[in-house]
Specification:
By secondary structure, this protein is an alpha/beta fold. It has 7 helices and 9 strands. The longest helix is centred in the N-terminal third of the chain and has 18 residues, at 2-19.
């Protein structure tokens, strides 16, 4: 029985790693259990190949998290107090990539955007944590690259392997 469980676990980890959209197999397992896939996802790898000028980036974290760092040119829209008025002026057919720390909050806000008629919404799989883990830059409020990343809390911060963790 023990050998069967070990073999099954090895298979699942190998399989998950082979289809994963994030570099860490264990992080991918966590994401697969937490996300409901109600919003189409885009991997960091696929996003990094696109021309960012044509994408609207929306940050679904709290204002303090956004203030520490965010993706270049991202617009803060929040989570707890999200209001559709914050996305007024964004074309409902524009390519929108929404993110948070790992993708759970952004998925929930993405659902609201889709219900409001936005047709091309994607949730960044692994969100800002995976973006930074794969070596991509984040920016401070002055628009300058920063090593700092708000790690949400110590429990979730374990998934952020690169950058300088901030918890304030």
């Amino acid at each position: 029985m023990k050998k069967t469980l070990i073999a099954l676990l090895f298979f699942l980890l190998s399989y998950t790693a082979s289809v994963a959209q994030v570099e860490s197999g264990t992080f991918n397992i966590l994401l697969k259990t937490m996300l409901h896939e109600t919003v189409p996802t885009i991997s960091v790898s696929d996003l990094s190949k696109k021309k960012a000028d044509n994408i609207v980036f929306l940050d679904a974290r709290e204002k303090g998290e956004y203030n520490v760092s965010h993706l270049k040119n991202a617009k803060w829209i929040g989570f707890e107090d999200f209001d559709l008025a914050r996305v007024n002026g964004i074309d409902k057919n524009a390519e929108v990539v929404i993110y948070c720390s790992i993708g759970v909050r952004s998925e929930k806000v993405g659902e609201k955007l889709m219900a409001a008629g936005y047709t091309n919404v994607k949730n960044l799989y692994g969100s800002i944590f995976e973006w930074v883990n794969q070596g991509h830059s984040v920016y401070d409020l002055a628009g300058k690259p920063t090593p700092k990343v708000h790690a949400y809390n110590k429990k979730w911060g374990v998934w952020l392997n690169e950058g300088e963790k901030v918890y304030e």
